Amino acid sequence: MGSQFGARLAVWGILIVVFQASALVPTEKPTCVAGFQSDMLIYQVVRKHLRTGTRLGKVGFSDCTDRRAFPLHSDDSHFTVQADGMLKVKRPTDIHRHREFTIHSWDSQGHRISVPVRVVHHGHRHGKHHHTVERHHGERKHHNHPHHHTTENPTDQQVPVLHFPKSVDGLRRRKRDWVIPPLSVSENDRGPYPLKVAQIRSVEDKKKTIFYSITGPGASEAPFGLFTMDRLTGNLYITQPLDREMQAAYRFQAHAVADGSGTAEAPMDIIVVVNDQNDNKPFFAQNTYLGEVAEASPIGFEVIQVVATDLDAPNNDNSDVRYRILSQDPTLPSDHLFVVNPITGVIRVDAGGLDREKYPKYTLVVQAADMKGEGSAGNTKVILTVTDSNDNAPVFTQPSYEASVEENKIDAHVITLSVTDGDEPFSPAWNARFTIVGGDPGGLFTVKTTESNKQQGIISTAKPLDFERSTTHTLLVAVENEVIFATPLPTATATVVVTVLDVNEAPIFNPIEKKVSKREDLVVGSDVVQYTASDPDTARKQKVTYKIIRDLAGWFNVTKDTGLIKVKSLMDRESSFVKDDTYTVLIGAYDNDDVPATGTGTLIIQLEDVNDNAPAIEERAIKLCHKDSAPRLLSVTDKDGPGFAAPYSVSLHGLSKTNWTARMNEFKTGILLNLATVLDSGDYTVVLRVADNQGLEQDSTVLATVCDCTGEEVICKGRGVAGGTDLPVILGILGGILLLLMLVLLLLLFARRRRGEQKVPLLQDDDIRDNVYYYDEEGGGEDDQDYDLGVLHRGLDEVFRNDVVPNFMPAPQYRPRPANPEEIGNFIDDNLKAADNDPTAPPYDSLLVFDYEGGGSDAGSLSSLNSSSSGDQDYNCLNEWGPRFKKLADMYGGGEDDDML
After folding, report:
1. Dist CA 321 CA 272 (whole Å)
2. What is the mean pLDDT of the chain?
3. Calpha distance 871→366 (Å, rounded)
4. 3-state SS, residue 807
5. 362: exposed, middle or buried (C-beta count within 10 Å: 0-12, 13-18, 19+)?
6. Counting beta carbons within 10 angstroms of the beta carbon of residue 81, is it exposed (0 to 12), middle (13 to 18) or buried (19 or more)?
7. Is the peptide bond prior to 596 cis by the omega test (within 30 degrees of 0)?
């Protein structure tokens, strides 16, 4: 029993050790075999003729390393395989139903691996050009990758089978060798849908019932339902066509769950890459491009660039755009004026002949096509405006011009030149610029354009022309544009002949301003200077005469024919007309032309000073106290210059010597005057004799007012301001004047009042009176021509005698006032005779009538007076007429003198 128990225990121990050892043995790593992904590659094309560069699809190959580029070679020279596995048409070829060839590659040990390829022509499919790749897995299961399996059902579409990667127990991590390759799906595939693209398998599906599902974008996330998976079989389907331009790849996860036992596999990442199809044609950034090209642009000049975009996958033929020009309008002067770079889209000038004046605009239609210019295409329009270049030279409207202009004028208009230009108006290539290139070495002329018309050049004088020097000037004028010529062009020139017209020029003094120096005491009649002018009109041989135009002091005269200037009156340097010891005289020179021309010259005379002015005292009145007075300073001035002025000397004369003292100040320019004795208050005249440094002397009087005060401060008590007159005296005089004025006013008022009380009686029948006439119109002589002839008519029409019945006989005709003053005498004589014979006129010449003087007068009429010696008249009544007629009474009435006889 014990031995059996021990044996059993040993067996169990061995089993446990074996079991543990078997548990520790790691799972055998799956090996990677280099090779192609499929046993055979089938490519379907819809075109019978394949062009160079046509891509057929990808060739999948792996050498179990991290390399992605492999050496691939096709044994058919019409096809080539790029390093990235892209199978392309190398040479144009035709596919008759199908073509077969082999592709070779080499693994990392240098062993060659081959796969057969078949290109099948299936005609036009779904209206689009598709290249479909079918991978056939034959009897070689797990040939390249252990995770790729074929479907056993021959009716199902052959799709890749993806196995969940195995994990090590306890660690649950994926092996580094198990890399799930992306699934490739062509965009725009038309099904039928749902379209099977792959199958997911778990190694546990042989033992358990496995349920498959997917989660992530395109399945359980937006865009929802794009991918679906059969829950039982693990088939992956697409529910609708994909668009690579919308999304180029999808990444989601596949899950495997065992029935009743939870998760059977770790989630597997699945990447679906959408293969590009040429389903987008290029489009331009602008429907219409606008550009400009100068007409003188050289060949190769870049004008504008057009850019087209293709939304297909980049870096393949589907998006490889090429440009070309489809049409040009107009096609003149040639139909290939422009060319476009097929790759960059830059349009350049390709030929000469652009001419804005003939063809100002070109319209190009540019095409952009993918597939390197052989696929889908889009068009745009390019409008090019031909801008002006200076390819037309300005031309004068006439080859030569003639003009005339007067001499001595500056900025005088000579002539206007006109040109024409074929370039665009008002552009810098059209605007003209004129230049005098010959015939004007002295710069006498200038030419410029106007602001309003840039094709006109105005020639004018820049300096005065001289007829006596040159009578004609021949100018050569050239014209260009404001910008240089775009092409070599000749420069147009024109000849302008300018004739100088002679005008009467004024004589010219030489010099224009002449200076001389003369003593101011030059005697009258002395010659000052001969100041002459010459006539520039030498051809006219005119005579020049002179006269003084301005001589403010009137000191000079000039000899008419010689221009010799002499002293007419004594000059005075100290005159107000002399400024800074100079005196200016304006001399005129005249020629003897019908319209004389006048030239002027300025004579400046520097007057030399002489001692002709004695010094004088400025102060004429002073005030000082009669006791202890301070000396008064008197200023001394001399109109002469410094050489004939200070130092001065002074002396007293007459009675001034006794009462006054006078001496010069320390500078010998002023006099100190003071009292020598005490004087009574009053005004005193002090006579001072002052001499200059040359001994020329002059007596000056000073009115000295001596006031009753003491010291320097002068206070004059009881003396007015004006001459010391007492204020009461002035007031008394003013009062007397006012009284006299009042008396005169009273007398006038009394006389006026008395006149107002008198009444004028009616004219009495015995009223006898005489008329007194006066003649107050005396001729003004030759200097008085302003006659008041209306006075001659006064009384004829207005004054009538009121004691004689008027006679209404027709009046004679009076002569009207003549316009000529010389006829005034005859006018007066004629009208005087007419007035004497006028029966309607009074028999008198007086214009004033002494009318009735009023009644009640003691005096009778004077008409009875008779100057005869007859003693019949009694004049004693004159004594009764009052004192005013006393003289007449004494003369005619006798009196005391007669009694004495």
Report:
1. 27
2. 77
3. 156
4. coil
5. buried
6. buried
7. no
Q: Is 620 helix (H, G, I), strand (E, B) or coil?
A: coil
Conformational region of residue 274, where left means phi above 0, alpha means psi within -120 to 50, and beta covers everything else: beta
Q: How far apart are CA 870 and CA 866, in angstroms?
A: 8
Tell how strand 249-258 and strand 235-238 pair up.
Answer: unpaired
Q: What are the structure tokens assigned to 104, written together?
A: 């070779």
Distance CA 752, CA 4 (A): 200
Spatial contact of 733 and 725, defined as CB atoms under 8 Å apart: no
745: left (phi over 0), alpha (psi -120 to 50) or beta: alpha
Query: To which H or E segment does residue 623 belong?
Result: strand 621-627
Residue type, 828: I
Q: Give me the residues paired with residue 168 across strands.
A: none
Cα–Cα nearest to 475, from 461, 490, 488, 454: 461
The tokens describing 157, both together, are 């579409």
Altogether, the residues listed in the chain come to a count of 901
What pLDDT, in 10s, does the model give residues 339-363?
999 999 999 998 888 888 888 899 9
Inter-CA distances, 752 with 203, 222, 854, 858, Å:
166, 137, 16, 21
Per-residue pLDDT tens over the stretch 598-646:
889 999 998 888 877 888 888 889 888 888 888 888 888 888 778 787 8
How far is it, in rounded angstroms, from Cα 296 to Cα 486? 6
Amino acid (1-letter code) at residue 163: H
Closest to 517 measured CA to CA, from 630, 609, 622, 414: 609
DSSP type of residue 884 = G
Quick check: 528 and 518 in contact, CB under 8 A? yes
Report the alpha-carbon distance of residue 723 to residue 716 in Å, rounded: 12
Eight-class DSSP state of 78: T
| DSSP 8-state secondary structure symbol assigned to residue 781 | G
116 close to 100: Cβ distance less than 8 angstroms: yes
Tokens describing residue 25: 């043995």
The radius of gyration of the chain's CA atoms, rounded to the nearest angstrom, is 72
User: Within 13 Å of residue 401, how many CA atoms lie on the same side as its CB?
Assistant: 21
Q: Which of 520, 637, 502, 623 is nearest to 569 (CA)?
A: 520
Amino acid letter at 776?
D
With a CB cutoff of 8 Å and minimum separation 6, the contacts of 349 are: 293, 297, 298, 299, 300, 301, 303, 337, 338
Contact indicator for 547, 585 with CB cutoff of 8 Å: no
Q: 106-109: list long-range contacts, CB under 8 Å, 24+ apart.
A: 106/70, 106/71, 107/34, 107/35, 107/63, 107/64, 108/34, 108/63, 108/64, 108/65
* Structure tokens, 187: 């965009």
CA distances from 215 to 182, 185, 204, 224, 270 (A): 17, 19, 21, 10, 10
Query: Contact at 8 Å (CB) between 59 and 133?
Result: no
Strands 508-509 and 533-534: antiparallel
Distance CA 376, CA 278 (A): 8
The token pair at 771 is: 């008329």
CB 198 within 8 A of CB 228: no
Tens of pLDDT, residues 659-678: 888 888 888 888 888 888 88
pTM over 0.85: no
Q: What span, in angstroms and rounded, lies between the C-alpha atoms of 413 and 361?
A: 43
Q: Are 325 and 365 in contact (CB under 8 A)?
A: yes
**Bridge partners (DSSP) listed for residue 514:** 603
The 10s digit of each residue's pLDDT in 120-163 is 876 543 333 334 444 444 333 333 333 333 333 333 456 777 77
